[in-house]
Amino acid sequence: MKPFDYTRAAGRAQATAAAAGGAVYIAGGTNLLDLMKLEVMAPDRLVDINRLDFDGIEPVEGGGLRIGALVRNSDLAAEPAVRRDWPLLSRALLAGASGQLRNKATTGGNLLQRTRCYYFYDTATPCNKRDPGAGCAAIGGFNRIHAILGASEACIATHPSDMAVALRALDAAVELEGPGGARRTVPLADFYRLPGDTPQRETVLEAGELITAVTLPPPVGGRQLYRKVRDRSSYAFALVSVAAAVTMAEGRIVRAALAFGGLAPMPWRDTAVEAALTGESPSAALFEAAADLLLADARGRGGNDFKLPLAGRTLAAVLAEATGSGTGDAP
Amino acid sequence: MQTDLLINGASYTLEADPRTSLLDALRHHLGLTGTKKGCDHGQCGACTVIVNGRRINACLTLACMHDGDAITTIEGIGAPGALSVLQAAFVERDGFQCGYCTPGQICSATAMLDEIRDGWPSAATADLDGAPELSDEEISERMSGNLCRCACYPNIVDAIRDAAAEVAR
Q: Which residues of B touch A84 (CB under 8 A)?
């Protein structure tokens, strides 16, 4: 690991001022320190935000929830209000990482974790995300875990978070504070950037901006499911994951919120898929049509071609379970 | 830089480069070599320690981030002749072969049983509203952050189940 200066921030203003000057925030550190050991990331300065005061969960007016950015993944998953009113979020958090990591990892840090693309991690290979302009070794290389939606010729890495997929389906927003105290709120839908020609820029965060909270709108109810398909049954990243919140009335789907992990450089949501389901009676044909819509622009790169049928089948299985029209087993 | 740590009830003052992980601080600076380094990337769990009551990977955190924190390592859990209930159960059930992962398994399981007691759900918990039961499936899921390359998993699950029953008695 390269040497760095370490500062423990006593307040938000000190933290954002340090970051505006080039320091990198450290909270849980479970991803950042991993990357620093490999020198994939090599900041000159770290500013430790662990002792700042946004570590609580509180109801907000109108029935929503504000989750402090420093709330640990394990605390958020176990929070009674989340388990009761936003069970999708608990399920997604519990599907990720290990007990030890969830005790450290924070809400803000989880949103900002980096891809697990092997070539991003391997500094002996070219990677446009790590070293802009170097090229992409995953295209034409081993790309079993890579994106089939939203990728570019510069980068086909996926976003690894489970939590962010659930938050995307739940219409979460991200509260930010910049240097000088400027605050803004960004819907999670607008928080991530697709790679295009600049895969090194993953979010709309500006220099020094700090995530202080994630907010959830009032509970949407319905049946909430998080289905994660992976190479082993625990402690592995998603090949495909589906977050679903589906409300039924009189045998018809009246609301379907769906987000997908493992498929794209960001938690993926496709409102056309949701619109096609809304108002319809559940059937295998309907679910197949939804999968076709989702995957209309999907493209495999060889190793990840299997994700196309896997995504379609996982979506159909989740919809069958969420609508009560089947066992939920993949067809 | 200087960091004050309370480890197994004793005060230590660490003077180390900020790059020093909590794991390296324990092993190389403070002589507490019971905590093991396996992968050094948070994947194997051999370095699991308990910080302020929570199990974490000591390899993936900087010692300087823990100024003032209370840390329990395997040295603070039991000793020859005074084994913890979990340690005795691991011996009884043969929950290891080479033993390298065992300090991490014991620290992890010790804190995991507290998590169950506090009602934390896991991915294996069918009902998020109910109190989790300590089924074998729950134990396996909750211990998935601790690898055993000797693959003593069935005996580790047996040991944890026995220890939980013993404590409950």
A: 128-129
Is B140's pLDDT higher than 80?
yes
Tokens representing residue A306 in the block = 């299997």
What is the Cα–Cα distance from A188 to A211, expressed in whole angstroms? 12
Report the residue count for chain A: 331
Give chain B positions within 8 Å (CB) of A23: none
Q: Is A327 on the interface with B (CB under 8 A)?
A: no
Determine the average pLDDT of the residues in B117-138.
95
| DSSP symbols for A34-99 | HHHHTTSS--SEEEE-TTSS---EEEETTTEEEEETT-BHHHHHH-HHHHHH-HHHHHHHHTSS-H
Please name which of A53, A58, A63 lies closest in space to residue A15, comparing C-alpha atoms: A53
DSSP-derived secondary structure for B92-143: HHT--SS-TTHHHHHHHHHHHHHHHHTT---TT-S-TTSPPP--HHHHHHHT
Query: pTM for the full model?
Result: 0.97
B108 contact A CB<8A: yes
Give the closest of B57, B129, B141 to A100, CB-based: B57
d(CA B65, CA B141): 29
Q: Does A330 have pLDDT greater than 60?
A: no
With residue B7 as reference, give the H or E element that holds it.
strand B2-7
Partners of A26 on chain B (C-beta within 8 Å) are 62, 65
- A99–chain B Cβ distance below 8 A for any pair: yes
Selected residue of A33, A84, A98 to mutate for chain B interface (largest B Cβ count, 10 A) = A98
Specify the pLDDT at position B84. 98
With 0-12 / 13-18 / 19 or more C-beta atoms within 10 angstroms meaning exposed / middle / buried, residue A183 is exposed
